[in-house]
Design brief:
With 66 residues, the chain is mainly alpha-helical. The protein contains four helices and no strands. Helix 1 packs antiparallel against helix 2. It is flat, with a radius of gyration of 14 Å. The chain starts with 5 loop residues before the first helix and ends in a 5-residue tail after the last helix.
């Protein structure tokens, strides 16, 4: 796998933390995404945790009208 980089692993780790239900503010702090005032920078963290196709499909299934 040639696309495996430290940065890709970082994205995967942060993404998996969110999938595990860890609050975004905690994930931001773990990632070191902080504003100048020391509060979590959620906007920066959101760049790392974009959902994949399967997650989007599962989200839509959650409101399916079967």
């Amino acid at each position: 796998m040639t696309d495996l980089t430290c940065h890709a692993l970082r994205h995967t780790c942060l993404h998996n933390l969110v999938k595990a239900g860890i609050p975004l503010s905690t994930v931001a702090e773990i990632a070191g995404h902080l504003k100048v005032d020391g509060t979590p920078n959620i906007d920066m963290t959101l760049r790392y945790i974009k959902p994949g196709k399967e997650e989007k499909a599962n989200a839509m299934e959650a409101i399916s009208w079967d």
